[in-house]
C-alpha cells in the first residue's frame, strides 16, 4: 500500500506539472491579448502597455513560467486579471456548489444505473430488458442542454413577486437549497444513469456465465444470493472504475447544467473566465479539476482491489 501511494504521488506531481505547463503555454499563445480584453477595444497603445507591465506580461515567457511554477509550488494560484481577487478564493467560493451538484447526481446515477443494469441482466431478453434498452438509447442520445431545458420547462416554478425560478443561484445549505438542487441533480444524473445501466448489464451478463457462478447454483444457493453476493461484486469492478473517473471529471464539466439552472459553481466560473480572458482563473480551475481526477483515480485503484481479490496492491 505504501509503495502504491508513493508511486501515485510522484505520478500525480508529474501530471500536475504537465497539465499546468500545457495550459500556461496555450493561454499565453492565445491570439487574443489579455490587455486588449481588459482595456477594451478603444484602449490606447500606452494603456495596453501599462496593463501588460502591471500584469508582468512584458517579461520574457520563460521568466513568467518560472514565476508561475514558483507560486504554484507555494499553493498560490495567482490573482484574477479582472478583479484582482485571489484565484484560490474564487474557486473556494464556487466549489461547494459544484461538489454538491456532482455528489447528489453521483448517488442517483450510480444507484439507478446499477439497479437497472442488474435487473436487465437477470431478466435478459425479457420485457424489462427491452424497456431499459430503450431508456438507455434515449438517455445516451439526449444532449445535456436538452435534458436540462426539458426538466426546467416541466417542473420549474416562477414566483410572481420575483419572476425568477426558485433555484436561482446562491450558496449551498441555505433555505430551499435542497429543493433548488433536485432538478440539477436529476438532469445531470439522467445523462449518466443510462451509460451505467448498459455497463452494468454487460458486466453482469459476463459474470453470470463464469464457472464459479454455475458452481454456486449447483450447490443449491438461492438465486438472489448468487446474483447479489457472488455476481454483483465482480461485476461492479469496471463500473466502479468508470465511476471514479466520471466523478473527478464532472467537477469541471458541469457548465451546461450550472448555466441552465443558474448555479454559481465552478462551471459558471470557467464560463465567465473564458469569456473575459481571465487566464489565472482558467489555469487555477484546470489544476483543481486535475487534482480531483487524480484523487478519484487513486480511490478507484484502492477500491478495485477490494472488489476483486485477484488484484493486489504491490
Written account of the structure:
By secondary structure, the protein is mainly α. It folds into two domains: 32-76, no CATH class; 91-307, MetI-like fold, CATH 1.10.3720. Helix content is 75%, strand content 0%. Helix 7 packs parallel to helix 11 (255-261) and helix 10 (223-250) runs antiparallel to helix 13 (279-307). The longest helix is centred in the first third of the chain and has 36 residues, at 87-122. The protein starts with a helix and ends in a 7-residue tail after the last helix. Residues 158-173 have low confidence and may be disordered.
Poorly predicted regions:
158-173
CATH architecture descriptor of the largest domain: Orthogonal Bundle
Helix content: over 70%
Q: Taking Cα atoms only, what radius of gyration do you get, to the nearest Å?
A: 24 Å
In DSSP terms (H or I, runs of 4 or more residues), the helix count works out at: 13
The ordered H/E elements are: HHHHHHHHHHHHH
What do we call the CATH topology of the largest domain? MetI-like fold
Mean pLDDT: 77
* Main structural class: mainly alpha
Amino acid at each position: 500500500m505504501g509503495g502504491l501511494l508513493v508511486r501515485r504521488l510522484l505520478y500525480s506531481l508529474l501530471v500536475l506539472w504537465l497539465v499546468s505547463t500545457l495550459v500556461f503555454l496555450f493561454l499565453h499563445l492565445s491570439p487574443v491579448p489579455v490587455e486588449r480584453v481588459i482595456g477594451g477595444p478603444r484602449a490606447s497603445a500606452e494603456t495596453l502597455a501599462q496593463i501588460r507591465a502591471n500584469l508582468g506580461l512584458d517579461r520574457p515567457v520563460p521568466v513568467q513560467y518560472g514565476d508561475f511554477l514558483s507560486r504554484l509550488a507555494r499553493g498560490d494560484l495567482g490573482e484574477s486579471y479582472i478583479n484582482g481577487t485571489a484565484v484560490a478564493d474564487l474557486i473556494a467560493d464556487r466549489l461547494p456548489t459544484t461538489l454538491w451538484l456532482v455528489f447528489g447526481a453521483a448517488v442517483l446515477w450510480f444507484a439507478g444505473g446499477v439497479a437497472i443494469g442488474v435487473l436487465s441482466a437477470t431478466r435478459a431478453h425479457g420485457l424489462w430488458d427491452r424497456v431499459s434498452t430503450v431508456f438507455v438509447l434515449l438517455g445516451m442520445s439526449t444532449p445535456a442542454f436538452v435534458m436540462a431545458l426539458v426538466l426546467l420547462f416541466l417542473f420549474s416554478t416562477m414566483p410572481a413577486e420575483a419572476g425568477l425560478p426558485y433555484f436561482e443561484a446562491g450558496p449551498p445549505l441555505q433555505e430551499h437549497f435542497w429543493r433548488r438542487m433536485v432538478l440539477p441533480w436529476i438532469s445531470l444524473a439522467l445523462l449518466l444513469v443510462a451509460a451505467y445501466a448498459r455497463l452494468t448489464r454487460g458486466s453482469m451478463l459476463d459474470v453470470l456465465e463464469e464457472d464459479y457462478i454455475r458452481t454456486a447454483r449447483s450447490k443449491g444457493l438461492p438465486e438472489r444470493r448468487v446474483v447479489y453476493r457472488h455476481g454483483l461484486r465482480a461485476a461492479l469492478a469496471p463500473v466502479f472504475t468508470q465511476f471514479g473517473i466520471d466523478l473527478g471529471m464532472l467537477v469541471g464539466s458541469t457548465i451546461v447544467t450550472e448555466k441552465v439552472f443558474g448555479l454559481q459553481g465552478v462551471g459558471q466560473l470557467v464560463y465567465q473566465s473564458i469569456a473575459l480572458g481571465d487566464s489565472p482563473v482558467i489555469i487555477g480551475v484546470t489544476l483543481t479539476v486535475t487534482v480531483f481526477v487524480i484523487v478519484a483515480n487513486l480511490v478507484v485503484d484502492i477500491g478495485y482491489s477490494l472488489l476483486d481479490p485477484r488484484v493486489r496492491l504491490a
